[in-house]
Amino acid sequence: MSTTASQTATASQMRLLIIEDDRESADYLVKAFREVGYIADLASDGEEGLSLADSGDYDVLVVDRMLPKRDGLSLIGSLREKGNRTPVLILSALGQVDDRIKGLRAGGDDYLPKPYSFAELLARVEVLSRRHGGPAEETTYKVGDLELDRLSHRVARGKDELTLQPREFRLLEYLMKHAGQVVTRTMLLENVWDYHFDPQTNVIDVHISRLRSKIDKGFERPLLHTIRGAGYMIRDGIR
Amino acid sequence: MTAFGKLIRTTAFRLTLVYLFLFALFAASLLGYFAWNTRRLINEQITATVNAEIAEIEIIYARRGLQGLALTLGRRTLRPGANLYLVTTPAGTAFGGNVESLSPGVMASSGWSETAYRRLDEQDTAHHRALVRVTQLDNGFRLLVGRDLEERRRMFGIVANAAQWSLLVVIVLGLGGGIFVARRVLHRIDAMTGTTQRIMAGDLSGRLPVGRSGDELDRLAENLNAMLERIEALMTGLKEVSDNIAHDLKTPLTRLRNRAEEALASSGSESEYRAALERTIEESDGLIRTFNALLMIARAESGQARGNMDDFDAADVARGIHELYEPLAEDDGLTLRVRAAPAALHGNRELISQALANLVENAIKYGKPDPAVQPLDAAVAARSKEILIESRREGDSVLLSVTDHGPGIPEGDRKYAVERFVRLEASRTLPGSGLGLSLASAVATLHGGELRLGDAHPGLVATLAIPARAASGDRLAAQTQDVPQKVA
To answer: For testing the chain A interface, which of B302, B316, B328 should be mutated: the one with the most A CBs within 10 Å?
Structure first.
């Protein structure tokens, strides 16, 4: 976690609004986000959340789906109506696929069912945030001497051309798009494979280790790192 | 409320009363019309006869005088069923005819009147009634011709009698029928009420009595029974789930709690605390996973996930899952292969993918060949390490199957294996929530299909069989609904 903190605190600080009515989890979130160097504000009902989200300049909104006075989905709806495009992550006790779809249709950008781990939430918030969103639609990604060309589907490390399976390519593409950010297993399953269920086995780890053997094996500096208790990150880091 | 009070409050009884009143009214008016018309007809006949006779007698009198008159009257009074004739002198005494007495004053006024009379030749003393007409002859003599009203009276009596009896019969039959029908209905409704009260009190196994007549009450009872069947199944499912949750979630929760307690009690190093906390998080993640799977099964079973259905190719699902699990199988020394024949399907793609993923995970976990049996042939050995994902259309069904060559499931255990939390003896030592097969089964049921477990000689074939026709039927229905909307 401390790694992520130092990473995010570099430029200007990330500003976050948490709209959550349960006092204890709200306090926990605010404290946890502040520990990793975010500025985190708190609103405890839908109306307050809407007016704060409207007036403040936030990078990401974390919205509980069920709120007093105004529920999460209608809050997002009216924000979007006013042209506010701040990325929104919905937290909800309703974790089924159709609830997720409903949340995303209402204008949410990501959906995380409760209970969640803070590492998962943090990783998703970082990926969502505008400032750290990375090179959104660039045609080539570059991390260290690893290069990925999205148009020609070519991957090279240094002078070596690497041969990847289509799915390995998409996996690497997603990791490189979010280079320097933690990407969790569920995020990979959702974004690379488009599945929203929770496999009982370590399928993603096996795919990662295959990818790793292709891009890191035989090279002095590993690029694909396992972040304990959270997920994976691709970065050119010595530390 | 008394039994009688209940009886007369029934709809059947009230309807009977209304019909009874209407029928009585109808019968009365019919008889009344008949009686009135008959009376009119008889009166007309009498009037015509009397008028004709008077005309005749007047002519005879005019031609032949009193002599002729007396002669004619004498003759006519002798005819059988003769009319009444009376001629009086200007002094008022009888001159001829067959009438002995009349009501007083009848002879004094000319024209029609009704009177009591007695005939000369009659023995009985009873008075009869007659309709008579009196005319003035020219020399002070008066002539009376009339006809007995017995016929009319008798006719009237018959009608009145008929009215009385028919009313009585209508009332008796109507009331009797009403009470009979009402009692029958009431009896059955009471039986139903009794059963529903028992059910409300908690005995969900109760069913309404269904008669053999197939009438509306039977159909209602059948429908209610079907509803009760469904409620009972849901309740049983719910109870099973809560029992299982109680059992299978409490165990890891207890473990979790014990571990935390233990860590707290021992004065360990930071790394020991850290390890204890990590294990706690791991354990709670497992709990969450089990919980999610249970919720998913419950939702699939209750049919809530029927939204989000769309059209897709089962082959894509098979290929996608193969692609996801192929490296995992390889790591475990198995070969995951796919044979995907196109098969169009309508359903919840996510759920079907998950069901298939569960079957593949099971095959990877439990489908390893028995290490004690080492096949001599290398080809057989390779085959025994193969897991095959297959999609195809067979008849009206779309089949998604996973075949392994492990120990399989004994035939007797197969039905049992699908139940929640059941982990067969052989698999107790392997990790897993024991919900994989029941989720797959619930998903198949949600789509109107089933999960079939079969023998792969050796090994297990787990097949999601989902009807394709029902799905295309839905699409057709949706299309035909669209057409008029477009036209409009």
So the answer is: B328
Give the orientation angle of helix A72-81 with respect to helix A46-55, to 10 degrees.
Answer: 30
What is the distance between the alpha carbons of residues B355 and B351, in angstroms, rounded to a whole number? 6
SS (H, E, C) B35-87: HHHHHHHHHHHHHHHHHHHHHHHHHHHHHHHHHHHHHHHHHHHHCCCCCEEEE
Mutate to test the interface with B, among A92, A94, A96, A196 (most CBs of B within 10 A): A96
DSSP string, A21-50: --HHHHHHHHHHHHHTT-EEEEE-SHHHHH
Residue type for A171, please?
L
Query: pLDDT by residue (tens digit) across B35-84?
Result: 888 889 888 988 999 999 889 888 888 888 888 888 888 888 888 777 88
B351/A contact by beta carbon, under 8 A: yes
> What's the one-letter identity of residue A116?
Y
**A14 neighbors A36 (Cβ within 8 angstroms):** no
Q: Cβ of A203 and B299 within 8 Å? A: no
ipTM of the complex: 0.78
Residues from chain B contacting residue A113 (CB–CB below 8 Å): 292
User: What is d(CA A209, CA B18) in angstroms, rounded to the nearest whole number?
Assistant: 86
φ, ψ (nearest 5 deg) of residue A231: 170, -130
Asked if residues B290 and B433 have their Cβ atoms less than 8 Å apart, the reply is yes
Q: pLDDT at position B440, please?
A: 85
Q: Give me B480's structure tokens.
A: 């035909």
Can you spell out the DSSP letters for B452-485? EEEE-SSSEEEEEEEEHHHHHHHHHHHHHHHHHH
Amino acid B304: pLDDT = 63
Helix (H, G, I), strand (E, B) or coil at B403: strand
H helix or E strand, kind and range, residue B28: helix B11-78
0.80 surpassed by pTM: no
